[in-house]
Amino acid sequence: MFSDSAVRISSRDAVLAGTIAILVGLAALVSGPPAFDAVDGAELSLAGSRLEIAHPPGYPLLLLLLRLDGASSYAGHRVLTSVIAGLAAAAVYGAVRSFRHRPVSSAGAALLVALAPPVLGQLNLLEVHALALLLCGLALMLRRHTVGAYMLGLAVFGGHPASLLLLPAFLGTRKDVSRLALALIPASLLLYVPLRAGDSTLLHYTSPVRFGHWLSYMGLYGGRLAGPAAGRLMQLLSALGPVSGAAVAVLLLLGRPGGWRLPVSAGLAILFVVSYDVRDLYAYWWLVLLPLAPWLAGGLASIRKAAGGHLSAVAVVAAGAVSGLTGAWSSGDRAARTVAGDMARGAGPDGVYCAVGHQTFYTAYLLEAEDLRPDLLPADLYGNLFGLKLASPSGNLPDSLGGRPVYATRAWRSLPLNGLLFTVDPPGLAWDAYDVFRTPPGTDDPLARDQLAECWLRRAVAEEGEERDRAFAVAESLASTRETEERVHALR
After folding, report:
1. CA distance 395 to 265
2. Rounded distance, CA 229 to CA 270, Å?
3. Which residues contact 292 (CB under 8 A, 6 or more apart)?
4. How is the chain split among helix, strand and coil, in percent rounded to 5?
5. Cα 187 from chain centroid?
6. Mean pLDDT for each consecutive 10-residue tract of the chain (492 residues)?
7. What interhelical angle do 285-305 and 230-240 show, nearest 10?
8. Which DSSP symbol is given to 385?
9. DSSP assignment of 83-105
10. What is the pLDDT of residue 325?
């Protein structure tokens, strides 16, 4: 059992925690994509393999673990993050048990959190969220112990900065507040970026070695924080799905919050997410569900007390688990790899290949991890990767450089569109040579679907008549964000 003065784990707790870890770890492993995902997987895989710099705040602890696991590919690294996902689910179980909920109810709540569609949809990728959930779960479980404050700091500086939203759970007595000084110790992990930046050659983010430069790097996504938006709230709620959403709602109605601290953390998490203007809002659902997990366990306990309640509780958890597996299943998702591969194939020999945005990470992975197109000289229009920067994304590009033709993944204003790339040199590929037009989408990821929509949009611009209309229609059906929908309508 768990108490506030000491943590004593019974054999039943150990068996349940181990079972949860195995189930969730396997679910994460088998449901994830075979190739790099459309978000941060390619970047994190490369940064971990090479111990270089990832996007702010750098995720040093994750990169060190990826380096230590010895893998050099996305698939290999995802084995490690699947193990971390299983351990994270077990930590959620421990956190719920520390609020004196019974083992079975705690196990059900942990499974509902870890297997919720948007949560499992991050646990089965190469992402930082599994590690952040693990550290936050441990911090919450140990919140009344000296090491708990340290774990919270490790979650903030070694997991995800938004883990700080769990702070209300650690505010109680004056002794609790004094312990929080320990949370600052893991801040030393932030030294990773200036210490490694000078030796990074592939992912360098302009080498933020000096203090002022490092501050600029850390504030790279500061502009993403905006006021709360109803549209983002609806996007967040829809990502949970009807089944998991209904299960969470019913259990919250039947359970009790057990104090003000955890509901406040959950409320702050919702406020943060609906104020954060990013495409993958759904990735942060774990921040909301983790502090609600004890409340969910209370709801399950209420169901189990009713006549036939044991079967009803099992049905609720099973429905949530099935909903999560079906909603997060992406074992056939090769969309990002297909688009990136087609674009790279479209470039002529010995060219300068200019990429921007996520295509930069994909290009780096293809060239470095898969040794594809070693003849190309890569350039990043943002200047964060590679050794060559030609211009900003809105600037003009030359049609050649040092006798090499220039190809760009985005250059609407400066180079003509040929195939899927912008270049003055026609690619020499017919549309049917591109895999992206012959392969079913195989993905529900909004960013991946937007990239597929962009491919069909570029084909539509080059086509005429019925083929043009068909390409526009496919692009419109694939567009998953307002930005891409507006781009389709503007060009149409």
Report:
1. 43
2. 11
3. 113, 248, 252, 262, 263, 266
4. 60, 5, 35
5. 22
6. 53 94 98 95 97 96 96 95 98 96 96 98 97 97 91 96 93 73 94 95 95 92 82 90 96 92 95 88 94 97 86 94 95 94 94 95 97 96 92 84 94 91 89 90 88 94 92 93 86 82
7. 50
8. B
9. HHHHHHHHHHHHHHHTTT--HHH
10. 96
- To which residue do tokens 């449901």 refer? 31
How far, in Å, CA of 460 to CA of 454, rounded? Answer: 10
Q: How far apart are CA 439 and CA 432, in angstroms?
A: 11
In this prediction, residue 222 carries a pLDDT of: 77
Check residue 460 and give its pLDDT. Answer: 94
What was the pLDDT predicted at 125? 96
CA-CA distance, 7 to 374, in Å (whole number)? Answer: 55
Which pair of structure tokens corresponds to residue 448?
């991946």
3-class DSSP assignment, residue 258: coil
CB atoms within 10 A of CB 192: 20
> What's the Rg (C-alpha) of the chain?
24
Instruction: Write the DSSP string, 195-233.
Output: HHHTT-SSB-TT---SHHHHHHHHTTTGGGB----HHHH
Helix (H) or strand (E) holding 377: strand 377-380
CA angle at residue 163 from 160 to 168, to 5 degrees?
Answer: 170
Cβ-based neighbour number of residue 155 at 10 Å: 28
- Residue 37 · residue 340 · CB < 8 Å: no
Q: Which parts of 115-260 fold into alpha helices (H)?
A: 117-123, 129-141, 146-154, 174-179, 192-197, 211-218, 230-240, 242-254
Q: At CA 52, angle to CA 47 and CA 57, rounded to 5? A: 85
pTM above 0.90, yes or no: yes
Sign of CA pseudo-dihedral 404, 385, 280, 436: positive
82 closest CA partner among 134, 124, 136: 124
